[in-house]
Amino acid sequence: MHLLKKKDAYQVYIYTCFVSQLFLTFIFTVNLLYQVETVQLNPLQLVLVGTVLELTVFIFEIPTGILSDLKSRKLSVIIGFLLIGIGFIVEGTFPFFIAVILSQIIWGIGYTFTSGAHQAWIADEIGEERASSAFIKGAKAGNLGKVIAIPLSIFTGYFMINLPIILGGIGLAVLSIFLVFFMKEENFKPASKVERVSVWKNIKENMSQIIYFSKVNYLMRVLFLIALFFGFYSEGFDRLWVPHFIEQSNLSNLSEGSLVIVMGGIQFIVVLCSFAALHFIDKSPIHQHLKYIYVSLFIGSILIVMSLIGFALSTFVFSLLAFYILIQLSRTIMYPLENIWLNKIIPDSSTRATFFSVKGQIDAIGQISGGPVTGLIASNFTIKTAILVSAIILTPVLFLYNHIMLKIRG
Questions:
Q1: What is the 3-state secondary structure (H, E, C) of the chain?
Q2: Domain for residue 198, yes or no?
Q3: Which of 76, 174, 332, 390 would staple 274 via disulfide (CB 3.0–4.6 Å)?
Q4: Is residue 96 part of a domain?
Q5: Distance separating alpha carbons of residues 275 and 143, to the nearest angstrom
Q6: How remote is the C-alpha of 85 from its chain's centroid?
Q7: pLDDT at 3
């Protein structure tokens, strides 16, 4: 029974990042290829699948964030991983467009339960300063999980492309059960019974606080606006990069198993590069100072915009690979830095999960708006054109980061 003793929250956070990313990467290594090759979704359907996912996130992000702040962040995380697992089991079991849509709704709801709640939980349990280190180390642990998962997914998917999706879903469901025993929640103080009388009243109050702090806090407004533009561009690229890569590099005549090896190999290279980059960020003082964080996010945004253009126009395997790696590497580094930025400027810890949820919802608004547009462009023109449009959409972020840095200097 001593094996079921609750562990230090810092350790649990790192372990959860590792295990969840292991199973998610086990799934995602083949997931988009499964949708393209087995379910045979066209470019518009691929983007619509993502739009349904983001619409689900948009609808449930704030309510689940509020419930996390009111009831239990631990419970929210556990429910989240369980639903994510169920969603992928449905997708991998039934290779039909409608089943894929249903799976996005299920795991999208699950994601909103974990989004914000996981970050808010660790910040409350170990403190804001130590949480900054946990975000970086959690990202590193997640990348280690990815390194392990990708070869396993390639091996499993080579024989049956949907098997990693089903097994990964089962693994995430099992993770939720383990967290019941291992995850502790000692520093979170849920609202009293009187305060729980009306969830919608609490939603209104928390949203009023967020609107107020966004009005008086310039950095908060800019952060949310940047999240919106990242949402605009990302959905089209995330859903269309695989068919674009296959088409431009003339890999369409390969067998399904061979494509699994190629796509899995690309993901493996990305993860190794990301792991090295996050290790450097962890050992450097970058994540400890907002000034350095802004500069890093600005450079990362430049790399993404330029690489999107290069990826869209390339016709050779190695150049496509290089630009894709730069895009994913930049995004991997920027994610924990954005979490640290938001965590440092949140004025009230009692609404921490809600602030993170609002950021996620704003990103979802961008993806819901931008996804169908790029999908229609890809269907009526070319995927290349759609990705170029994505690069143009992201460009305003460069001016926003530049404005922040000029304001700080001034």
A1: CHHHCCCCHHHHHHHHHHHHHHHHHHHHHHHHHHHHHCCCCCHHHHHHHHHHHHHHHHHHHHHHHHHHHHCCHHHHHHHHHHHHHHHHHHHHHCCCHHHHHHHHHHHHHHHHHHCCHHHHHHHHHHCHHHHHHHHHHHHHHHHHHHHHHHHHHHHHHHHCCCHHHHHHHHHHHHHHHHHHHHCCCCCCCCCCCCCCCCHHHHHHHHHHHHHHHHHHCHHHHHHHHHHHHHHHHHHHHHHHHHHHHHHHCCCCCCCHHHHHHHHHHHHHHHHHHHHHHHHHHHHCCHHHCHHHHHHHHHHHHHHHHHHHHHHHHCCCHHHHHHHHHHHHHHHHHHHHHHHHHHHHHCCCHHHHHHHHHHHHHHHHHHHHHHHHHHHHHHHHCCHHHHHHHHHHHHCHHHHHHHHHHHHHHC
A2: no
A3: 332
A4: yes
A5: 6
A6: 16
A7: 40
**Sign of the alpha-carbon dihedral angle for 143, 280, 359, 288:** positive
Q: Residues near 404 by Cβ (< 8 Å), separated by ≥ 6? A: 219, 222, 294
pLDDT in tens, 350-362: 666 667 767 777 8
User: Domain count of the chain?
Assistant: 1
pLDDT digits (tens, 9 = 90+) for 309-327: 999 999 888 999 999 999 9
Residue 240: which domain range?
Answer: 7-184+210-409
What is d(CA 148, CA 268) in angstroms, rounded to the nearest whole number? 9
More confident residue, 126 or 5: 126
Domain-embedded: residue 147: yes
Looking at residue 219, which CATH number applies to its domain? 1.20.1250.20
